[in-house]
Amino acid sequence: MPKSDGQPDKLGARYEGDVLSGKLTVDDALALQKAEQAAHAIRTQMRTGVGCVRGPEEYDPVLRYHLGMDKAYYFKKDEEKSG
Is residue 71 part of a domain? Predict the structure, then answer.
């Protein structure tokens, strides 16, 4: 495909866009598009709060235990046996 930089060629055809004008390869354009979609998804999650952890009460149970926020379930069972 001839590169025309957005100008009509001798047949009057004009190629627009980074891939058709030869500025980017198809693989580079797809990688850029994928990165833009991921960034958009993250911005949407941050704006709406959907899919984001809102506070410490929603942390993963293992993280909560390691941070000393609560005890693991097996310690609670041990306390019930001894108490």
Answer: yes
